[in-house]
Amino acid sequence: MLKRFCLLLLVSGAIACSSSKNTTSTPSLNTLTKAEKKDGWKLLFDGTTKAGWHIFNNRTDGSAWKVEDGALYYDPAARGPKGEGSGELITTDSFENFHLKVEWKLTEGGNSGIIFLAREDLKYKYAYITGPEMQIIDNDKHPDAKNIKHRAGDLYDFITATPENVRPIGEWNQVEIVLNKGKLDLYQNGAKIVSTTMWDDNWAAMKAQSKFKNTPDFSAFHKGHIVLQDHGNKVFFRNIKVKEL
Questions:
Q1: Domain named 3-keto-alpha-glucoside-1,2-lyase/3-keto-2-hydroxy-glucal hydratase: which ranges (predicted)?
Q2: Rounded to whole angstroms, how far apart are CA atoms 160 and 185?
């Protein structure tokens, strides 16, 4: 009887230790570690509210953008018949040289994007005509993904992401945008997938071959806002953080 009791204690202790390890190894959502805070990282999404964000040019109240289970997401079902509640979600703050980290996931057939260096001004109808975009899309089910420069991770309409390492629909993808004095690098799920330099002759040549060739203010600004695109599809974001360089 004593041996059985001791064995039960050992098993219970092992389970408790295992449970404790699993709990401590799971990273907290929408938080910063002490090391990140010391290194200058700041949260752009607190996990519970839309503080620090608004709709581009305040066109609507943004009610179709919601927060649930630690994720910020666009709900097309909440969009009014005339677009009420919808629109591109833009940061209050603007950034020049920065390192941005974001996690995103899509529902089937979805499309969205992360726009940066966007200029907010009433003369612009949409943010995407002012700032470059890291594409978010269902490569298999959305028709726009047939364009080789419109696939997940691409520098939209400029550069194809290599390798193409987007995860299956419904899974979270980890992406990063690093811009420092014109040097631009995009990362997806741990791999560098795009590397270029903005505003040089090669950039001008790429723009001249893109859909933005007749959009003079596209990528013209060296400082601007970060934007989460409303493309009419359900898309989720979390762990949005930035470090100014």
A1: 40-243
A2: 13
DSSP class per residue in 150-164: SSTT-BTTTB--SS-
Q: Please name the helix (run of DSSP H) or strand (run of DSSP E) that holds residue 187, with its range, or none.
A: strand 183-188
Report which DSSP code applies to 24. Answer: H
- In the chain, the domains with their CATH numbers are 30-244 (2.60.120.560)
The per-residue pLDDT string of the chain (245 residues; one tens digit each, 9 = 90 and over) reads: 544 444 444 444 444 444 444 444 456 899 999 999 999 999 999 999 999 999 999 999 999 999 999 999 999 999 999 999 999 999 999 999 999 999 999 999 999 999 999 999 999 999 999 999 999 999 999 999 999 999 999 999 999 999 999 999 999 999 999 999 999 999 999 999 999 999 999 999 999 999 999 999 999 999 999 999 999 999 999 999 999 99
